[in-house]
Amino acid sequence: MRRRDFLLAAALSPVLPARAAAQFDRGLLWEVSHKGRQISGRDVAHSHVFGTIHVADPRLAALPAPVAGAFERASRLMLEFLPDGYTRERFTEAAMFLDRQTLEEKIGAEDFERALEQLQPAGLSREFVNKLKPWGVLLNLRDPRAAAGTTPEAHLAGLARERRMPMSQIEGVEELIFTFDEMPMEAQVALLKHSLAHRAELVELAGRTLEAYLSGDLQRIWRLREEFVARHAAIADHQAVLTKRVIHDRNVVMAFRMQRELRRGGAFVALGAMHLYGGKGVLALLEQDGWRARRVY
User: Fold this and answer.
1) How many CA atoms lie within 13 A of 254 on its CB side?
2) Half-sphere exposure (Cβ direction) of 274: Cα atoms closer than 13 Å
3) Which of 77, 94, 174, 193 has the fewest CB atoms within 10 Å, i.e. the most exposed one?
4) Model pLDDT for residues 97-138, shown as the tens digit of each residue
């Protein structure tokens, strides 16, 4: 695995969320239309919003029929993020200490050895790992049993290229970097050390999360993580910081930027399913801005 691919592949992965309202608690595909039916005096075709999960798994290889149908009828694709060569390099650079700081001095020798062991499948050198910031390691603690393959977002992007379908992204790489890089070092260290110490439990949680996703149960995904945090109260405050930055703050930006495509109509928007859930999710925020969301699948 190339270094630049190592970091960016995990940047959009699910995180442990805080408690959210049970509005929009089920469903991965939503039809979105304007409540007024017209914008600036013209009719606007409805669009679709699809909740994804940022992992590669054989069960995700084919789009469910309702999702595939909505995508075929769409005129444009908007993804949460569209990586390329530059953004991969930039993200990797941002995830590394560029001065004399090291990961080992941040988390201690014992946890550093744990990090090396758990990152071994990526084939990274000791020197490279030692220059990673804690959040750079945290994002890449993967299940060693995880399947190689294509994520749903990459699959959609490939289909769009085959159709020569216009594509855009919701966020830029600098915004994504800011989300993680400005997180307090204390929180980064605490969350990484905890993840290293509870590896098996987190692997199990990831598996159960995928099962909940496959059943379209957004509320179940939130509850699984709430239960995890409840069992580990020592990281609750740090987890709340991460959740605010990665989920709730980004929801506001996403809901705003999605509307440039929704106003044109016929868009297919794909983003992490956790951004759909609850009273603070993008669907609830869109409804506050005059849109109507109807569950399709």
Assistant:
1) 28
2) 26
3) 174
4) 999 999 999 999 999 999 999 999 888 999 999 999 999 999
pLDDT tens readout for residues 142-178? 765 555 678 999 999 999 999 999 999 999 999 999 9
pLDDT of the residue at 12? 52
Reported as a single tens digit per residue, the pLDDT across 271-296 is 999 999 999 999 999 999 999 999 99
Residue type, 125: S
pTM of the model: 0.89
Per-position DSSP letters for the chain, written without gaps between them: --HHHHHHTTTT---------SSS-B-SEEEEEETTSEETTEE---EEEEEE-SS--GGGSS--HHHHHHHHH-SEEEES----HHHHHHHHHHTB--SS--HHHHH-HHHHHHHHHHHGGGT--HHHHHTB-HHHHHTT---TTPPPS--HHHHHHHHHHHHT--EEESS-HHHHHHHHHTS-HHHHHHHHHHHHHTHHHHHHHHHHHHHHHHTTBHHHHHHHHHHHHHH-GGGHHHHHHHHIIIIIHHHHHHHHHHHHHHTTS-EEEEEEGGGTSSTTSHHHHHHHTTEEEEE--
How far apart CA 225 and CA 227 sit, in angstroms, is: 5
State the amino acid at position 113 in one-letter form.
E
Instruction: Tell me the backbone φ, ψ of residue 228, rounded to 5 degrees.
Output: -65, -50
Instruction: Count how many residues are written for the chain.
Output: 297
Cβ-Cβ contacts under 8 Å for 23 (sequence gap 6 or more): 278, 279, 281, 284
